[in-house]
Amino acid sequence: MIKAIIFDLDGTLIQTEVLKAESYAQAIHSLTANSVSEKHVLDSFSKFVGLSRPEVVKGLYKDFRKDLENNLYDPTPEAVQEKLIRKRLSIYHEMLNDYMLLSKHFCLFNLALLESAQQNGFRTVLATMSHFTEAQKVLDAMGVTDNLDLILTRDDVNQGKPHPEIYLKAANILKVDSEECLVIEDSVNGIKAALTAKMPVFAVTNSITKRAVHSANLLEDKFIIDDPKELKTRVYDFIIEKRL
C-alpha cells in the first residue's frame, strides 16, 4: 500500500530545468564570446538533466572545453569550471528572483497532485538535487511548503541522483518501506534513482526530458506520462490497484 508520495522539483513541480538550461546556455554563450550558440548548449544540456550542479558543469565543460579555454584568461580546467559556475549562478539567481517568470513555469497539474495527496492523507516529500536555498525560493514562489511533510535537497545527501540515497533517506525518515513510496519524476537520472531504491515511479515528461525518458526503456508505457492532465487519474488508479 502506498503511504508516501515523493516529488522531484525541477522539471516536475516547476519547469526550472528549462530555466537552468537557459542559464547555462547564456553563460557559455557569453564566456565563449558568442562563439557557442545558446541552442547548441540547450541541446547538450538534455544529457545532464537530473544530475547535481558539479556533474552538469563537468559535462558541459567537456562538451565545450575548447571554446571555453580559448576565451578565458586562465584556461585550466578548475578555473574554467569555476568561472562557468559563477556566471551561470548569477544568471539563474536573477531568474529565481523574478516571480512573474517563475509563475509561467509552474507545473499546475503536478502541483494539483501534490495538494490532493496531502489532503488525502499521504505523506508528501520533496527530493531534489537543487541546493536548499534555491529550492526554498522556488517553493516559496509556488506556496507549497505547507503541503510537504519533508524536504530533502542536495545538501542532505552525499550522492546525487541517479544514486538512490535521497529516496532511501526519505523512506528512512518517514519510517516506511521503499515499496510504500511512490515517486513522481521527470528525468532519466531521477527514474534510475527511484528504481534502484525499489520504489514505483511515474515519469511526467517535458520538452527537455521526453525523448530521453522514452528511449531509456526504464519504465512501462503506463508509467510514462506525456500529458500532465493524465497524471492525477493514473496515479490514483495505480494506488487503488496496489490496495486490491
Automatic annotation (TrEMBL):
Its cofactor is Mg(2+). InterPro entries: Beta-PGM-like (IPR051600), HAD-like_sf (IPR036412), HAD-SF_hydro_IA (IPR006439), HAD_sf (IPR023214), PGP-like_dom2 (IPR023198). It holds the Pfam family Hydrolase. Keywords: Carbohydrate metabolism, Magnesium, Metal-binding. One of its GO terms (molecular function) is catalytic activity. Coiled coil: none annotated. It comes from the Bacteria. Belongs to the HAD-like hydrolase superfamily. CbbY/CbbZ/Gph/YieH family. This is Haloacid dehalogenase superfamily, subfamily IA, variant 3 with third motif having DD or ED.
